[in-house]
Design a protein that fits this description.
alpha/beta; TIM Barrel; eight-stranded parallel beta barrel
């Protein structure tokens, strides 16, 4: 069975945020993902995780206005200083939380900006992030996200992420591989995972459509998990979906493996 983590930003909404770490442990998860932890003091998050006995697996670098419908930071020319400040904030949190994987969301290609210019901006920002996190032993990831949920998103295909980290040319850069986004943009989930495996530092999943738990849509997650086991991948596999009911009730996919 893969080593599953649970995203406490998208899941466990039945609990106050700082209580979700213990709730995750009570459900049998040893690792948690956090999208953006910055509304809470890092010390409070670290204490909650230690008390629950769970590892904080990853966080995202702050993405500016991306989550409110804007273009974000990482691929937007002219926002390099804001991205550098975001990296510093993420580095402070990663140090306190003991996080070893940090995700950079590329953002959207701004209106009137050429894709090549956006890509070059992303590459420079990935270099900055990788250099800042290297002394902390942290891997910086680029994640493909689908353009249906995030129109004009720069990095939509697995190859886009690999091209970006190759161009940035830092040893601590990798891909965050999300089966949900991959299914919408490219399909070929198992083949794509196997092909990208040497570059992958973290895996996430949800069913499509709807981004709900496995069994609510079209993806055969049992086959995916078997392929992950067979591949030798030993990293975390993050449940990152919106439960249709309570989080506990949504876990039949795991309990039936």
């Amino acid at each position: 069975m893969p080593r599953f983590s649970i995203n406490v930003s998208m899941m466990l909404h039945e609990f106050a945020f700082l209580d979700r770490f213990q709730a995750a442990a009570d459900l049998g998860f040893a690792g948690v993902d956090i999208q953006f932890p910055y509304d809470f003091p890092a010390d409070a998050l670290a204490k909650a995780a230690r008390r629950a006995g769970v590892e904080i697996v990853l966080i995202n670098v702050p993405a500016g206005d991306l989550t409110s419908g804007g273009d974000g930071l990482a691929c937007v020319p002219g926002r390099e200083k804001a991205f550098a400040r975001a990296v510093e904030e993420a580095a402070d949190y990663a140090f306190v939380l003991g996080v070893k994987r940090v995700n950079v969301l590329s953002g959207r290609v701004s209106e009137g900006v050429a894709r090549d210019a956006a890509f070059a901006t992303l590459v420079g920002n990935l270099q900055l992030a990788a250099d800042r996190f290297a002394p902390l032993g942290v891997t910086v990831m680029a994640e493909p996200c689908n353009g249906r949920d995030v129109p004009r998103y720069l990095v939509q295909r697995t190859a886009d992420a690999i091209d970006a980290i190759d161009a940035a040319s830092r040893r601590n850069l990798a891909v965050q591989f999300d089966f949900y986004h991959r299914q919408i943009v490219e399909g070929d989930l198992i083949g794509g995972f196997r092909a990208a495996l040497p570059r992958i530092a973290h895996v996430q999943f949800a069913d499509t459509p709807g981004r709900h738990e496995p069994g609510t849509g079209e993806i055969n997650h049992r086959s995916l998990f078997a392929a992950i086991d067979a591949s030798g991948y030993s990293g975390w596999v993050g449940a990152e979906y919106r439960p249709t009911g309570t989080t506990a009730a949504s876990l039949t996919w795991r309990d039936n493996l």
